[in-house]
Specification:
The structure is a single chain. The longest helix has 22 residues. A hairpin with a 5-residue loop joins β1 and β2. It is built from 3 helices and 2 strands; from the N terminus they run αββαα. Strands 1-2 form a two-stranded antiparallel sheet. By secondary structure, the chain is mostly helical.
């Protein structure tokens, strides 16, 4: 149980933030070419479709990060914002998300 009563939309955003982060971690490593022209990870299985999906997920992750960070709830606190953000993190990770 948390000492904070988080608004449902803030909990939802943080739960989705974790879900998107998990999906991004499941992607294979993106291939790249270094400054010497040497290709790396060419056999990673990266495809144009994965590129498109990753772009969509990264945009959503960024959007959720902004939504969470500027939520009006944070303005209601008189200090202790770091503790409240950690409590949100834990609340969003609990089964049932609250």
């Amino acid at each position: 149980m948390s000492d904070y009563e988080f608004p449902e939309e803030l909990l939802r955003a943080k739960r989705e933030w974790f879900a998107v982060a998990q999906r991004l971690e499941e992607f294979p490593l993106r291939p790249y070419t270094d400054s010497a022209g040497v290709e790396h990870r060419a056999d990673s299985g990266w495809t144009p479709e994965l590129d498109r999906q990753e772009t969509v997920l990264r945009k959503r992750f960024r959007s959720l990060s902004i939504e969470i960070s500027i939520h009006p709830f944070w303005e209601t606190l008189n200090g202790g914002t770091v503790a409240a953000r950690m409590a949100l993190r834990e609340a969003a990770r609990r089964p049932g998300g609250g």
